[in-house]
Backbone:
């Protein structure tokens, strides 16, 4: 079995070296890039399964890299930044990152988040589907294919991150059921819910809604049940 390949893109060589040591010790194969363009070159050539990405980099910054990656890939992205403001975190997540950590960070926490992202990314492949109906769900013109990890509208691909896909599939596979932010977080992120993570769920729901409404001509697929959570009606 081939080891999981992780790309570290950071122009701070000391930080990149530290992260590489921790990930290598866990058995991951680690590649590095010191700027955004180099990172994109690596992604084009190697089967990268997760990206640890600094925001401030030369040539292409981290946000530019996220946008470029999301045009063609659903690779999980963990962003790193020295900026601790909430709006910086929200910008990173709404651009397409799956998680966000502020420098300086605890290396063991970073490792835990990497493992959590990889669990979510590979969760699909570990599941045995109970029926064919679970493999493909159709809502209006939207088709969700879990085996292919693909979402289409009238044969047009809807470009979702792995996190957005998992949220959509969770809600769509339980039509009419209301899921709280806590239930969504623990089901999708496979991690313990904290009050501070409510905003993380809200940001991903908002981004997912925007993409779906754009493709469905304004149809509001995901409904908010105020004070309770979110649902998709049958």
Residues:
């Amino acid at each position: 079995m081939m080891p999981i390949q992780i790309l570290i893109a950071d122009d701070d060589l000391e930080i990149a070296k530290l992260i590489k040591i921790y990930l290598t010790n866990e058995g991951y194969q680690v590649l590095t890039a010191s700027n955004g363009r180099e990172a994109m070159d690596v992604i084009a050539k190697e089967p990268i399964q997760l990206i640890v990405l600094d925001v401030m980099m030369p040539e292409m910054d981290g946000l530019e890299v996220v946008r470029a990656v999301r045009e063609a890939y659903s690779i999980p992205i963990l962003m790193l930044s020295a900026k601790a403001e909430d709006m910086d975190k929200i910008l990173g997540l709404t651009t397409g990152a799956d998680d966000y950590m502020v420098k300086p960070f605890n290396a063991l926490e970073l490792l835990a988040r990497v493992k959590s992202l990889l669990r979510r990314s590979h969760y699909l492949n570990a599941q045995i589907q109970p029926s064919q109906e679970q493999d493909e769900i159709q809502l209006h013109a939207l088709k969700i294919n879990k085996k292919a990890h693909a979402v289409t509208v009238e044969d047009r691909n809807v470009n979702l991150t792995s996190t957005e896909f998992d949220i959509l599939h969770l809600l769509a596979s339980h039509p009419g059921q209301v899921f709280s932010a806590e239930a969504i977080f623990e089901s999708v992120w496979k991690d313990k819910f904290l009050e501070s993570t409510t905003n993380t769920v809200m940001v991903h729901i908002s981004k997912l809604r925007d993409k779906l409404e754009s493709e469905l001509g304004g149809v509001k697929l995901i409904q908010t049940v105020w004070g309770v959570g979110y649902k998709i009606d049958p």
Notes: The two ends are 41 Å apart (CA to CA). DSSP finds nine helices and eleven strands in the chain. The first strand starts at residue 5 and ends at 9. The longest helix spans residues 107-126.
